[in-house]
Structures are given as structure tokens and as C-alpha cells.
Amino acid sequence: MAHRLEAPVIRGEVPGPPPVFTDAPDWERDFYENKPALPSAPPVRVDRELEDGDVIDFGGGARVVGHPRP
């Protein structure tokens, strides 16, 4: 399961967004810029795309709460 806006990234259809360091402390930016390259995660199947307000059959009915990207 994945939010419908994130599903194409998880399936490997489009690249994920770059990190945003607008309000990040300098140490966080330095850490990211100097870390070794990490391999990309392999694409995986998304069985169900979710929207804000959807209810999934988990724990007696969990309601999906969407959170916009910064």
C-alpha cells in the first residue's frame, strides 16, 4: 500500500524528489553532501493506492492521514 502520489516512485516509474535543505542545519547538509553514494532501492509492486481519509483493514480500521511534502 502507498499513497497514490508516492506509488509511481515506489514502482520505479519515476525518480523520487531530491532532498530539500532549505531550513536544515549546516551539519545536516554537510552530512548529506559527504556521505558515500547509496544504491537505489529496487522497485516493488504497489497492491493498493491510498488517499487521505481511506480506511484500511488494520487494527480495527486505520484511517489514512495524508501529509503534504514540504
Write up what this structure looks like.
The chain has two helices and four strands; from the N terminus they run βααβββ. The protein has 70 residues and is α+β, with helices and mostly antiparallel strands. The protein has one domain. A two-stranded parallel ribbon has the order 1-2. Strands 3-4 form a two-stranded antiparallel ribbon. The longest helix is centred in the middle third of the chain and has 9 residues, at 26-34. The model has no long low-confidence stretch (mean pLDDT 91).
- Report the major sheet: 2 strands, parallel
Class of secondary structure makeup: alpha+beta
The residue ranges in which pLDDT falls below 50 over 5 or more consecutive positions are: none
Number of strands: 4
Compact description:
The protein has 70 residues and is α+β, with helices and mostly antiparallel strands. It contains two helices and four strands, in the order βααβββ. The mean pLDDT is 91.
What attributes characterize this protein structure?
alpha+beta; two-stranded antiparallel ribbon; 70 residues
